[in-house]
Amino acid sequence: MLASCVTSKIGTYWEDPPIETPTFELPDADSGDDDSGDAGEVMMCAVTTCSLPWATCDASRFPCDVNLQNDNENCGTCGNRCKGPSAGNSTWTCFEGDCAFSCTGIGFRNCDGDTENGCETSVRYDPKNCGACGRECPAGQECTEGTCYDPCIVANRPDTCNGECTNLKTDSSNCGTCGNKCDPKDPTKPALPSDMHYGCSQGTCGNAQCNSSTKRDCNNDVSDGCEVTLHTNDHCNDCNDKCPAGKTCMYNGVYYCGCADGETNCGVEGCKQLDDDPLHCGGCNRVCPGNGRPHFTPSCSLGVCGGACAEHYADCDGIVSNGCEVNTRVDNTNCGACGNACAKDQVCSEGRCLVTPCDAGPGPIAK
Q1: Paired sense of beta strands 304-309 and 296-301, if any
Q2: Residue 289: which residues within 8 A CB-CB, separation 6 or more?
Q3: Lowest-pLDDT choice from 44-58, 60-74, 318-332
Q4: What residue spans carry the region label Disordered (predicted)?
């Protein structure tokens, strides 16, 4: 309960027995610099009571440091604990003062409506729930990344022979029609070098082809066989696919010339911006320290590691290992900034020590 102050011509006195509630003097707006008297002074008292949704609960370190709208340990009221992580990629969290069930794993959904088994369905890969609960792929199709697709078409095998996907235009075992097998040495054709054979092209047998998928006959002269090796800087993905200066032939599902300007090829990690990537800061795989420290995010700028506290948090004790340990929004010993202490039991809200006119009720004023 706030103290009640009374101001009269003989001075300011406590109407009730004095209590240790700090007071503050605010000059009257029209008084200017006039020191002629105290008639314009308004006595202010520290706010020691909470305004919703803030509350002081059993585990509170400071007055009114719990937000009942989003605190999983005190949801809606002190002591009302949400369940937290649950089975199968799910959790219970406090949302607007109520414990709410939600899915946590990427692409997982609670399709059976049973919270006890969590979010049991991956809508990324389940053909019966592809992209959303209940969205079933047509017969014979598969689901990947939430999209139904025909695996034969994706593999460039749009035809079917004996229940297997194939491409009648290129399959030397089913060339033009199922069961039509090409003779790799075709006696009606000239002999080929050892790295070539006759196969199927456009549904017709008798076409000279390379034995290896990484070789090409780029000069269209079968006498020297498959003279070009692919996946090099001179022939990255095909005969005429030469990488520009500074680029390298790389693989990421397909072969291509990388990296982009300003990027560096970090091997299996791919192309990286060494100027601003905290996992590759100034060099490949040079990780900036700080991951896992509370409320701290490591950063990289111009190849130099750094980091910053999350908004409203600060590193007040200077101890690196515990990160940014202070919430300056509610910590009344570090209110708004490290070392900015409010009076004992005074409420720190949004980084301000709150005061209110001593005889004006509970309405807080930031000071």
Answers
A1: antiparallel
A2: 298, 305
A3: 44-58
A4: 14-36
Own/partner pairs, 327-330, CB within 8 angstroms, 24+ separation: 327/65, 330/54, 330/62, 330/64, 330/65
Q: Tokens for 275?
A: 């100027």
Nearest in space to 277 (alpha carbons), one of 252, 302, 309: 302
**Taking a C-beta distance cutoff of 8 angstroms, is the pair 206, 188 a contact?**
yes
**Per-residue b/e over 315-347, b at no fewer than 16 CB within 10 Å?**
bbeeeeeebbbbbbbbbbebbbebebebbebbb
14 and 46 belong to one structural domain? yes
Q: Name the least confident of 9-23, 222-236, 244-258, 318-332.
A: 9-23
Distance (Å, whole) CA 254 – CA 270: 13
What tokens were used for 336? 């708004």
Q: How far apart are CA 18 and CA 45, in angstroms?
A: 12
Amino acid at 224: D
Angle in degrees, CA 262, 265, 271, rounded to 5: 65
> Cα separation of 241 and 65, whole Å?
63
- Name the H helices within 57-185: 151-154
Domain housing 305:
261-322
Q: Are 365 and 44 contacting, i.e. CB atoms less than 8 angstroms apart?
A: yes
Q: Which residues contact 154 (CB under 8 A, 6 or more apart)?
A: none
Q: What percent of the chain has pLDDT over 70?
A: 86
User: Per the domain annotation, does 335 fall within a domain?
Assistant: no
The answer to whether residues 79 and 141 belong to one domain is yes
Size (the chain), residues = 367
Domain assignment present for residue 289? The answer is yes
Contact (Cβ atoms closer than 8 angstroms) between residue 44 and residue 355: yes
For 89, residues 6+ apart whose C-beta sits below 8 A from its C-beta are 103, 104, 105, 108, 118, 119
- In the chain, how many domains are there? 4
Q: Is residue 235 part of a domain?
A: no
In this structure, the answer to whether residues 145 and 155 fall within a common structural domain is no
Question: Is residue 15 over pLDDT 80?
Answer: no
Residue with tokens 């199922």: 178
